[in-house]
Amino acid sequence: xxxxxxxxxxxxxxxxxxxxxxxxxxxxxxxxxxxxxxxxxxxxxxxxxxxxxxxxxxxxxxxxxxxxxxxxxxxxxxxxxxxxxxxxxxxxxxxxxxxxxxxxxxxxxxxxxxxxxxxxxxxxxxxxxxxxxxxxxxxxxxxxxxxxxxxxxxxxxxxxxxxxxxxxxxxxxxxxxxxxxxxxxxxxxxxxxxxxxxxxxxxxxxxxxxxxxxxxxxxxxxxxxxxxxxxxxxxxxxxxxxxxxxxxxxxxxxxxxxxxxxxxxxxxxxxxxxxxxxxxxxxxxxxxxxxxxxxxxxxxxxxxxxxxxxxxxxxxxxxxxxxxxxxxxxxxxxxxxxxxxxxxxxxxxxxxxxxxxxxxxxxxxxxxxxxxxxxxxxxxxxxxxxxxxxxxxxxxxxxxxxxxxxxxxxxxxxxxxxxxxxxxxxxxx
Amino acid sequence: xxxxxxxxxxxxxxxxxxxxxxxxxxxxxxxxxxxxxxxxxxxxxxxxxxxxxxxxxxxxxxxxxxxxxxxxxxxxxxxxxxxxxxxxxxxxxxxxxxxxxxxxxxxxxxxxxxxxxxxxxxxxxxxxxxxxxxxxxxxxxxxxxxxxxxxxxxxxxxxxxxxxxxxxxxxxxxxxxxxxxxxxxxxxxxxxxxxxxxxxxxxxxxxxxxxxxxxxxxxxxxxxxxxxxxxxxxxxxxxx
Lengths: 429, 240
What we know:
The structure holds 2 protein chains of 2 kinds.
Chain A: H1 2-18, H2 25-33, H3 37-42, E1 49-53, H4 58-70, E2 76-78, H5 86-96, E3 107-111, H6 114-123, E4 128-131, H7 139-142, H8 145-158, E5 162-166, H9 170-173, E6 183-189, H10 191-194, E7 222-227, E8 231-236, E9 239-244, H11 250-268, H12 276-285, E10 294-298, E11 301-307, H13 311-320, E12 327-331, E13 358-362, H14 366-375, E14 380-384, H15 387-397, E15 403-407, H16 409-422, E16 426-427
Parallel strand pairs in A: 1-3, 1-4, 2-3, 4-5, 5-6, 6-7, 11-15, 12-13, 12-15, 13-14
Antiparallel strand pairs in A: 7-8, 8-9, 10-11, 10-16
Helix pairs in contact in A: 1-2, 2-5, 4-11, 4-12, 6-8, 15-16
Chain B: E1 5-11, H1 21-34, E2 38-44, E3 56-59, H2 64-76, H3 78-86, E4 91-94, H4 96-100, E5 104-106, E6 112-114, E7 121-138, E8 142-156, E9 164-168, E10 178-179, E11 181-183, E12 186-189, H5 200-215, H6 226-237
Parallel strand pairs in B: 1-2, 1-3, 3-4, 4-12, 5-7
Antiparallel strand pairs in B: 5-6, 7-8, 7-9, 9-10, 11-12
Helix pairs in contact in B: 1-5
């Protein structure tokens, strides 16, 4: 079986690619005929496996870690967007191994969905894990936010080397208390930036009400000290460095601190000494992953796509991108990949959109969004649940103005498809 | 000119809010304004002094861990909340607060968390999670639209009546096809978070009752419910 599983899997992969099929089928085939394939292949990597998980920012953070490690001369295997579960990892492996099943890489950096990661780490204990956050996302899948935290805890408990935790997220930071095997490292935020990351638990303690006292925070390897328009300050090794950033949005730049912390752990354990200048240079050049805070050019003017999946993400999106001078569209779908439950929109404050209003609302829950904005006294231009005509009307009506679209995941996919039909889309970053 | 002030109390917003409970408080606040009244939004958290002169109470959902945090404090407020309920204070109780206003919550492992017994209901923890879009057919409020996400299953005693039956969704438990509870001026429901925005009939019932109790009569304003109507139509068509 072992001798034919890889060639057969690669064949299925070729055929399904020719047919334009999904990425998971070849993974499914190889898993069926050779259940040990993924574990066996990954176990040959000299620096092991690093897992990135959490509610928000997995894709962009994984991309950052990969690029940071590549700047250190490492050959990195990773799973691309849309295949962040076990079968997807196996399928991605089939693309990278040679016909005899050998993977030429130093390390695998894998983005894993919280629930799927549990199955993965049971089979392949990672040497490193990076746990980003536990937000109120996808409760229609996990039931409770505390359940999501337990899933991350399980990933940490299976990690053999180093676990990197978000010091500012109480549910993630608390995981440290449950671990006695792996080494624990943290990434963190300057106190002055904490207010831009309202904690999910403090969503509605009401304006001005006192927050519960914070316990003393552990030392963080990398701390994000300041976020500028196109640069940021990080502190590590006792010094503060300023670096340019192509990424936009405070949340992305905070995740850069996470990526930096993990990459420094891995590079520090490697055979070659860490090239600090190379790390920073790579960080300054990381572009956002597909659809996540992308800047496009439409009709010669910028169009920003801001992915919003949960209250924290939406609030950060609103804070990160000032509303002034922009035409705004919001696209809210409630398909499975978006999360079916839309009541979280009521945990986002939309006052920042009050001055300019919102030009266009679309998506299957466009009227829920209209209702939400009405209760925050934000004027709404037009509402059309159909994305294609709504997008066309938005672009037509906002000629001469830069544009910004806040969108849920499946709405983002639809918008990207439509944009390329009605206008020339140039990806800037 | 304001027709009067209504004091709306949020119960335990710090520990018992999940997915948009703020929406309920915001809707009461804005609709009071749209009806010509002045809202005064208060909150009560664990250890606070209980405010006087409360006209309307809204209590949110929460995680199991949130219920544990507030449990003792809530029990210490049992007599105050019972008096307010018996006197006819309108209240909206969602999910976790619905359960804790009942007689008890018996967990899967068999331990019993006492409730304050305002509502004649009991709740049993299960391994099954009931999640999805819901439509409740209510004799008082018409179709009530929302989203449920709970593993506790609640059974009603003779002292309360259901909010309605569930043509779509599960509701109180997986057996009797009923959702929520009604007792005096209390509306209790598993439709979590933002129940009121898409169900202005319930919001206006709570407001009308609060105003009538305080000022003797209620003169409604004319809120613009266009978007609420459209959001309801679209929500009703979404799959479970």
